């Protein structure tokens, strides 16, 4: 049987720089193909090249066959006609896949109407069923800005798959989801792949394991290893794949030990009796929370329980419905900082990254050398500063956001899943660096994370937000 996707000698270039080099792959019906790999290695651009959505300024060469049809022979309109119907894509940033003004349910039912040619009522019915299965029954009338990151991720998934495309390209479909919801999305993806093609890009080794099938591992634009997922995860051959699999949190050093025996630190912030209502849903009530200098406090809780909202309350970005937040150290307002769950939300799209950093340096009279040393520590090339936010990878933008907040010497940093877009090696190194810097500089670090193993390794204390009525 002919493969659903066949790629021969694919190259993606920015001018003379090759971003993806001589890549070959075959995607077959019933065998999921998963791409693991380093942040910035060309995974998302590969997916965009396949579907025909490469950003301006990048060029592609080589052969792409979808269902046996050579894409080079098709007009733009013919390629677009395949979208949703033959091949569907879930982009890395769910917000980019959603209409900001349209509630969740119509976003999904519209796809059934437009692509599936269903009557409005039947489309509505199908869309509600999809949202139900993704535990989004009560989110149907919310617009994207009213959804949590994990909820938006699932709505985008429903919209991307509603067209009934036989081939699905899913770029990090489970980031920002707690383990239960992650497993739910993986099971649905796997279901679809039984009768079609599924190409998944993920940084989550557990997702690769659950999907099974085949895996390729990418680094710096090339495939460094390929094989069955089972073989790659149990006995990787290349040094890079070995390091990647070994970087899972259970193998991290225990960072909590560093705090043991140290004198009690001064308190940076305290929240007393905090409650927050959103719409008619109570997210949390009568919550007491405090955090000291140099302390790492992990915050966990299911998707939609109010972790991000609690951070916004503590930072003074959102008033609590009741209770009080007390700042207990002398510091400038800008030293209470937040790392957004969704990195593009933190960057103005029309300004180069260098200009943006430069503005911040001038505004707060910061040390320019500090930015470069933070970027080096985060393994980011200086070249990225000449680009716009949409011209760097998801993981590069996430680390640039980290460099930017650290330049401001925060006394409190609310880090909302700060490594959700990073491969396991870079995630480990970045988390270790954040914790190390917090300890060195006495910054209080409030870390939102879903992985209990990670909490165990890094957090001095742990706060779990309980379930609210389903989202
Ligand atoms: N428009 C562009 N112009 C020039 N270079 C770009 C552009 N878009 C992306 N790049 C670069 O191409 C490389 C690959 O990007 P890509 O988004 O495919 O990475 P990725 O493997 O998906 O990474 P991540 O895991 O971080 O999402 C990155 O180094 C990125 O900086
Ligand atoms: Mg990517």
UniProtKB/TrEMBL annotation:
Entry-linked SMART domains: AAA (SM00382)
GO molecular function, one term: ATP binding
InterPro entries membership: AAA+_ATPase (IPR003593), ABC_Ni/Peptide_Import (IPR050388), ABC_transporter-like_ATP-bd (IPR003439), ABC_transporter-like_CS (IPR017871), P-loop_NTPase (IPR027417)
Record domain ABC transporter: where: 5-245, 269-471
Bilayer topology: Peripheral membrane protein
Pfam families (UniProt xref): ABC_tran
Subcellular compartments: Cell inner membrane
PROSITE patterns, A to Z: ABC_TRANSPORTER_1, ABC_TRANSPORTER_2
Principal location class: membrane
UniProt entry keywords in alphabetical sequence: ATP-binding, Cell membrane, Membrane, Nucleotide-binding, Transport
Family note: Belongs to the ABC transporter superfamily.
Protein's name in the database: ABC transporter ATP-binding protein
């Amino acid at each position: 049987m002919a493969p659903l996707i066949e790629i021969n000698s694919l190259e993606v270039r920015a001018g003379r720089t090759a971003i993806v080099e001589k890549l070959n792959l075959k995607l077959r019906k019933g065998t999921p193909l998963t791409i693991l790999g380093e942040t910035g290695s060309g995974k998302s651009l590969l997916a965009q090249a396949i579907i025909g959505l490469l950003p301006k300024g990048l060029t592609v060469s080589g052969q792409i066959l979808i269902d046996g049809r050579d894409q080079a022979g098709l007009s733009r309109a013919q390629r677009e006609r395949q979208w949703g119907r033959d091949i569907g894509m879930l982009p890395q940033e769910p917000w980019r896949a959603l209409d900001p003004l349209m509630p969740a349910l119509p976003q999904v039912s519209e796809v059934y109407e437009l692509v599936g040619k269903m009557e409005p009522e039947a489309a509505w019915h199908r869309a509600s069923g999809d949202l139900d299965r993704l535990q989004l029954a009560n989110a149907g009338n919310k617009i994207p800005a009213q959804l949590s990151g994990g909820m938006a991720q699932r709505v985008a998934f429903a919209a991307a798959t509603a067209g009934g495309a036989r081939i699905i390209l899913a770029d990090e479909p489970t980031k920002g989801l707690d383990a239960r919801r992650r497993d739910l999305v993986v099971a649905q993806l796997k279901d679809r792949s039984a009768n079609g093609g599924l190409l998944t890009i993920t940084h989550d080794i557990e997702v690769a394991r659950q999907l099974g099938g085949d895996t390729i591992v990418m680094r710096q634009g090339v495939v460094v290893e390929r094989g069955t997922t089972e073989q790659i995860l149990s006995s990787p051959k290349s040094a890079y794949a070995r390091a990647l699999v070994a970087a899972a949190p259970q193998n991290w050093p225990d960072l909590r030990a560093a705090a043991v025996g140290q004198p009690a630190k001064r308190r940076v912030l305290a929240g007393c009796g905090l409650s927050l209502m959103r719409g008619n849903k109570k997210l949390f009530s009568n919550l007491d929370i405090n955090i000291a200098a140099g302390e790492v406090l992990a915050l966990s809780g299911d998707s939609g329980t109010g972790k991000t909202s609690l951070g916004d309350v503590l930072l003074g970005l959102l008033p609590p419905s009741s209770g009080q937040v007390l700042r207990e150290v002398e510091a400038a307002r800008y030293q209470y900082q937040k790392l957004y769950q969704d990195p593009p939300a933190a960057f103005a799209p029309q300004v180069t990254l260098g200009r943006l950093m430069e503005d911040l340096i001038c505004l707060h009279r910061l040390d320019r050398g500090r930015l470069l040393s933070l970027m080096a520590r985060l393994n980011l090339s200086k070249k990225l500063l000449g680009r716009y936010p949409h011209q760097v990878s998801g993981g590069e933008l996430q680390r640039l956001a980290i460099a930017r907040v650290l330049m401001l010497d925060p006394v409190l940093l609310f880090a909302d899943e700060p490594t959700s877009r990073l491969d396991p090696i870079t995630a480990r190194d970045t988390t270790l660096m954040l914790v190390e810097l917090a300890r060195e500089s006495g910054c209080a670090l409030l870390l939102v994370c879903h992985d209990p193993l990670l909490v165990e390794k890094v957090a001095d204390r742990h706060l779990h937000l309980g379930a609210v009525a389903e989202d």
